[in-house]
From TrEMBL:
Protein name, UniProt field: AbrB/MazE/SpoVT family DNA-binding domain-containing protein
Residue numbers spanned by region Disordered: 1-20
SUPFAM superfamilies: AbrB/MazE/MraZ-like
Compositional bias per record (Polar residues), positions renumbered to this chain: 7-17
Species, as recorded: Pseudoduganella plicata
């Protein structure tokens, strides 16, 4: 694959087989998750709440260390999103 100019942007295309193997369908809404050196394309979350955590915040939640600085930061993000502050 190569990035190429598409209008004022850059992009690439995927074969029908690749999209089918990923389970994507025509017209499906997708989310793009970006981190250094990586782009992930995933089905869009249609309902519910999505919260982005740092690695430290996610580890604090996963290990139950909610009284740590990272755990408190993660809980505060959730509280802000659901309006529970």
């Amino acid at each position: 694959m190569k990035l190429r100019k598409i209008g004022n942007s850059q992009g690439t295309t995927f074969s029908r087989d690749t999209l089918n193997r990923a389970g994507f369908e025509d017209g499906q809404e997708l989310d793009v998750l970006v981190s250094p050196g990586e782009i992930k394309i995933v089905p869009a979350v249609v309902s519910g709440v999505t919260v982005s955590f740092t690695t430290a915040e996610a580890k604090a939640l996963a290990t139950g260390k909610l009284d740590s600085k990272s755990g408190e930061a993660a809980l505060n993000k959730v509280r802000r999103i659901i309006g529970a502050e």
